[in-house]
Amino acid sequence: RADIERGALGNRVAAMWAPLPVGPMGAVDRLHTISGEMQEIKDSGQAVGAEVLTRLSGFAPPTIMAQAARLQARQRLFNLVVTNVPGPQRPLFVLGRELAAIYPMVPLAENTALGIAILSYNGQLNFGLIADFDALADLDALADELRAEIVELAAEAGAPTGNGRGGRPDGARRRVIRALE
């Protein structure tokens, strides 16, 4: 979102093709690499172009949209979807009870092997992982690796360990890890 849109409601959807650094490197270096690549993509206008196409879809005749949806569902260009959804940073309540966590999920289109959704809520980062069993039979192993990478990132970055020091809420790091379970 642009700075003037901070806090605005509604979804902003943009597809971006980004490299995924999976080779050997430290967690902080990997984070910096990904952050730099994503900033370059955003600065290039690639994300804006995809968003414009998404907005224009509301003006297309239904028959064209139906054909486009069928084509998109049969895509062969990628097999991984990762999405980050900023959620409310305050507690929400349902029938008077505080919502403990929100776990996001990415629906898998045909030929998509893995979907990873990340949602922030009330000081937590919650992950939802879903996979095509034929393509990725051991999703638990991937979740374990992701959990280990987050622990490594927190350690390399000098993040607090949940003892209440460092200005973060007590247990914040633990909640991030537990959200994967």
SSE layout:
Layout: H1 27-44, H2 46-56, H3 62-73, E1 80-85, E2 93-94, E3 97-98, E4 114-121, E5 124-131, H4 139-156, H5 172-178
Parallel strand pairs: 1-4
Antiparallel strand pairs: 2-3, 4-5
The best one-word shape is globular
Number of helices: 5
Number of domains: 2
Helix content: 25-40%
N-to-C CA distance: 31 Å
DSSP strand (E) fraction?
5-15%
- Low-confidence segments, ≥5 residues, pLDDT <50? 162-179
Which strands sit side by side, in order, in the main sheet?
1-4-5
Structural class: alpha+beta
Q: Which whole number gives the mean pLDDT?
A: 74
SSE order, one letter for each helix or strand: HHHEEEEEHH
What's the story with the biggest beta sheet? Answer: 3 strands, mixed
Oligomeric description of these chains: single chain
Number of beta strands: 5
What is the radius of gyration?
18 Å
Characterization of this structure:
The protein has 2 domains: 1-73, no CATH class; 79-181, no CATH class. It has helices at residues 27-44, 46-56, 62-73, 139-156, 172-178; strands at 80-85, 93-94, 97-98, 114-121, 124-131. It starts with 26 loop residues before the first helix and ends with a helix. Helices cover 36% and strands 14% of the residues. With 181 residues, it is of the alpha+beta class. A hairpin with a 2-residue loop joins strand 4 (114-121) and strand 5.
In short:
This protein is α+β, with helices and mostly antiparallel strands and 181 residues long. The protein has 5 helices and 5 strands; from the N terminus they run αααβββββαα. It folds into 2 domains: 1-73, no CATH class; 79-181, no CATH class.
